[in-house]
Write a structure and sequence with these properties.
single chain; 208 residues; alpha/beta; Rossmann fold; 8 strands; globular; His_PPase_superfam; PGM_Phosphatase
Length: 208
């Protein structure tokens, strides 16, 4: 029995302060992000969606809205789809700029392989995998859509592909409103398919 679990990264966020907002409440989709959500809803209109679930964060719930409505489904919430924890949350962060210029923050950067500034990559992969399998079971024989965030989706993909979880953020293949689709035969993963129904975005641009 084939089941497909789509991991959808939410759309662009209204973030005029350009901070790393992480799990902070109140960060909604921008107008462009709302259009991206509608574009994805149109792209999956003909899919056999039986279950829609999202991270508890506002931007993920808003991205899920048009898709769930089009399929007459309620939006479930799974805490394990949430953005990664990060000690720089609420600060402006860029290479060589913002909070990274302040010596008091440097000890947080001691181990990029874990990473030392936030939730460990392996913990992210494990919780995301749990959310995926719950979605797969809920939509067995059909399709499920899980709305999450760039880093958790990319970390899970690397984990499933047997790659090192530490990576260069500038090389993530996970554009805004992109789909990373996991195709299962029973409970065994058969393939991973990536698509960008709303177009490509630069992974270096804040909007996660």
């Amino acid at each position: 029995m084939t089941t497909v679990v789509h991991l959808l990264r939410h759309g662009e966020v209204h973030n005029p302060e350009k901070i790393l907002y992480g799990r902070l409440p109140g960060y909604r989709l921008s107008e462009r992000g709302q259009r991206q959500a509608l574009t994805v809803a149109e792209a999956v209109a003909g899919h056999d969606l039986a279950y829609v679930v999202a991270s508890p964060l506002q931007r993920a719930q808003e991205t899920a809205g048009p898709i769930a409505a089009a399929h007459r489904l309620d939006i479930a919430t799974d805490e394990d789809l949430i953005e990664a924890g990060n000690q720089f949350e609420g600060l402006q962060v860029a290479v060589g700029d913002g909070a990274l210029r302040e010596p008091r923050h440097w000890p947080k950067l001691v181990n990029p392989f874990k990473p030392s500034w936030g939730e460990p990559y392996l913990e992210i992969a494990h919780r995301m995998l749990g959310a995926v399998h719950r979605a797969r079971e809920a939509a067995e024989g059909h399709e499920a859509l899980c709305v999450s965030h760039q880093l958790p989706i990319w970390t899970l993909r690397r984990f499933l592909e047997g790659k090192k979880l530490w990576h260069d953020p500038r090389r993530r293949q996970c554009s805004l409103a992109s789909l990373t689709s996991l195709v299962f035969d029973g409970d065994a993963l058969r393939e991973i398919v990536y698509s960008e129904p709303a177009g490509t975005t630069d992974p270096k641009v804040t909007g996660a």
